[in-house]
C-alpha cells in the first residue's frame, strides 16, 4: 500500500515549525525478556512471536500511533494492553527517544505476556493479576528517533544550513520564487531530508547558529512535499489449528499445523488471541426472560435467531433483541478455552482447542470484547451443526444433551483448575442441545473493553467433546455482535 505524507516546514524569524499533521512510520522490535519483531493479528492486537509478519506503525506530532491499516492504537483501560482498534481514536502520549526507544507517558518499560496461542505474547504497559507468564521488555523503533509526544520532531535540511536554536528543523530561508527539487525520502523524527533548495534569483545565505540575526528581507515560506512508498504485508491471524480426521475428535495439539482461510463472517476481534483478560469484571445486564412452554430457542445454524422446531431448552430464550445465531456478521471467538476436571480438582489442564462437557469435565471460555463494540448488543450463542456439515472439525456426542450455561465473576487463566474456578455471576439455565441446532444462550449490552468468561457444564448425562471451529459449519460457543 502507499502512504502519502506531506511535510510542511515554515521558517519564520529564528524559529522553524513542523505541521502538526506530520507522521513518521516505523517498525518495532522487542528486547529483554522476549526479543523479536512486533506483528499484528487481523484484529489489531500487537504481538511478539506467533509467526506474524512485522507490522508497520506511524506516530504523529502528538505522540499518537496508528497502524498500517489506519487503526488507532490505544492502551486499554482494563488491562493496559497495547493494541490498535478499528474506529478507535489513537491515544497520544507515545514517544521515541533519540536512541529509538518507544515509551508511553514517559515510561519505557513494557511487559509481554503469554497468550497460549502459537507462542505469541501480547504487549502491555503494566502487569496485572489477569495476565500470566509476563516478561519485562523494551520496544525499539527502527526509525523516527526523537519523535515525542507533542514535539513534532521531524526534520528537514537545506543546503549548508545551520540548525536554528530551539528547533529540530535546520533553518533555511529560500526566496519566494525558490523551486524545490525531488526529495528521496520522508524524514523520520530527528532525521533529515537531503537535497538543496535553490533560488531562481540569488543564492541564499545560510542562517548562522542560535541568536544570529536573519537577512533583512522578511522570511518566506517553503513547503516540501514528499511521497513515501512502503509495502505492507498483513499476516493472517486465522488460528493455526490441527486438522481433525474424518471421524476422530481432535485434541488440543496436532503434528500437522495448516492455516485455514478466512471465514465468511467478520470477527470483530480476530481469531483467536488467547489470554488477554481484563482486570474488570464485565457487567452482563438483562438476560432475556425464561421461555414459555410453547417456545424453543433451537434455530437452524445459518438462520437468524427466530424460533424453530427442535429441542426445547429450559434456560434463556432467544429474544427479539438478540443477534443472529450464525457467523454472517460480526462475532467474537473465544480467546482461551480451559477444561476443568472434578476428578482432578487441583490439576490445571491449561489451554485447549476443544470444549468438553462430561460427568466430570466442564469447560470455561474467555472472550475479549473490544472497545469498538461499545453501544452494541452481544448474544452468547452455541452452534451445534450436524456432523456431516463440518469441513475441518468434528465432535463426539452422547447422552441426553442437557448442558448448563453460566457467566462467571472473573476470567479464567491457564492456571485455573476445578478447585479455583471463578464463582458464578449469572446462571443462564439448562439447555437440551442436539445436532442441527443453534441456541441463543443470552443477549446483553456488549461489555466493551472487558474480558468475560462463560462455563458449560453437564446438567444430565451429556458427554460432548467438540473442536471449536468457525469454518463451515461453525461449531462451538461464540458471541455475535449487532
From TrEMBL:
In terms of InterPro entries, this protein maps to: PIR1-like_C (IPR054508), Ubiquitin3-bd_protein_But2_C (IPR018620)
Region annotation Disordered: where it falls in the sequence: 145-326
UniProt feature, compositional bias: Low complexity? 145-186, 193-207, 263-300
Which parts of the sequence belong to the Ubiquitin 3 binding protein But2 C-terminal domain?
332-472
Query: Where is the sequence biased in composition, kind Polar residues?
Result: 306-325
Domain Cell wall mannoprotein PIR1-like C-terminal: start-end pairs: 63-137
Name it: Ubiquitin 3 binding protein But2 C-terminal domain-containing protein
Amino acid at each position: 500500500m502507499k502512504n502519502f505524507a506531506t511535510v510542511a516546514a515554515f521558517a519564520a524569524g529564528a524559529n522553524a515549525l513542523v505541521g502538526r499533521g506530520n507522521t513518521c512510520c516505523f517498525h518495532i522490535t522487542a528486547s529483554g525478556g522476549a526479543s523479536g519483531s512486533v506483528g499484528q493479528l487481523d484484529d489489531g492486537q500487537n504481538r511478539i512471536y506467533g509467526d506474524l509478519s512485522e507490522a508497520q506503525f506511524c506516530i504523529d506530532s502528538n505522540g499518537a500511533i496508528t497502524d498500517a491499516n489506519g487503526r488507532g492504537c490505544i492502551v486499554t483501560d482494563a488491562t493496559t494492553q497495547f493494541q490498535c482498534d478499528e474506529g478507535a481514536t489513537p491515544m497520544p502520549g507515545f514517544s521515541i527517544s533519540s536512541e529509538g526507544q518507544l515509551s508511553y507517558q514517559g515510561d519505557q518499560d513494557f511487559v509481554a505476556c503469554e497468550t497460549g496461542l502459537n507462542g505469541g505474547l501480547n504487549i502491555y504497559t503494566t502487569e496485572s493479576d489477569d495476565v500470566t507468564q509476563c516478561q519485562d521488555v523494551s520496544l525499539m523503533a527502527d526509525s523516527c528517533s526523537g519523535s515525542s509526544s507533542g514535539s513534532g520532531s521531524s526534520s528537514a535540511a537545506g543546503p549548508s544550513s545551520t540548525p536554528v536554536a530551539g528547533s529540530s528543523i535546520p533553518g533555511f530561508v529560500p526566496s519566494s520564487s525558490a523551486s524545490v527539487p525531488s526529495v528521496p525520502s520522508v524524514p523520520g523524527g530527528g532525521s533529515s531530508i537531503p537535497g538543496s533548495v535553490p533560488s531562481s534569483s540569488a543564492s541564499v545565505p545560510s542562517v548562522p547558529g542560535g541568536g544570529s540575526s536573519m537577512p533583512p528581507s522578511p522570511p518566506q515560506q517553503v513547503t516540501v512535499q514528499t511521497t513515501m512508498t512502503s509495502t505492507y504485508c498483513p499476516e493472517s491471524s486465522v488460528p493455526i489449528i490441527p486438522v481433525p480426521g474424518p471421524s476422530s475428535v481432535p485434541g488440543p495439539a496436532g503434528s500437522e499445523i495448516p492455516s485455514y482461510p478466512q471465514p465468511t463472517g467478520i470477527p470483530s476481534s480476530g481469531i483467536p488471541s488467547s489470554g488477554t483478560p481484563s482486570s474488570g469484571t464485565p457487567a452482563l445486564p438483562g438476560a432475556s426472560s425464561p421461555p414459555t412452554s410453547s417456545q424453543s430457542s433451537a434455530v437452524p445454524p445459518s438462520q437468524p435467531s427466530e424460533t424453530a422446531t427442535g429441542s426445547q431448552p429450559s434456560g434463556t430464550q432467544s429474544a427479539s433483541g438478540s443477534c443472529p445465531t450464525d457467523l454472517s456478521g460480526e462475532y467474537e471467538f473465544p480467546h482461551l478455552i480451559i477444561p476443568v476436571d472434578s476428578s482432578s480438582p487441583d490439576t490445571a489442564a491449561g489451554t485447549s482447542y476443544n470444549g468438553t462437557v462430561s460427568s466430570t469435565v466442564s469447560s470455561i471460555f474467555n472472550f475479549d470484547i473490544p472497545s469498538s463494540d461499545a453501544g452494541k448488543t452481544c448474544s452468547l450463542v452455541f452452534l451445534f451443526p450436524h456432523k456431516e456439515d463440518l469441513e475441518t472439525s468434528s465432535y463426539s456426542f452422547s447422552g441426553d444433551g442437557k448442558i448448563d450455561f453460566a457467566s462467571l465473576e472473573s476470567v479464567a487463566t491457564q492456571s485455573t483448575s476445578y478447585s479455583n474456578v471463578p464463582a458464578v455471576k449469572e446462571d443462564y439455565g439448562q439447555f437440551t442441545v442436539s445436532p442441527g441446532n443453534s441456541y441463543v444462550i443470552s443477549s446483553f449490552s456488549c461489555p466493551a473493553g472487558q474480558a468475560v468468561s462463560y462455563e458449560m457444564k453437564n446438567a444430565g448425562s451429556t458427554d460432548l467433546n467438540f473442536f471449536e471451529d468457525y469454518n463451515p459449519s461453525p461449531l462451538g460457543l461464540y458471541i455475535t455482535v449487532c
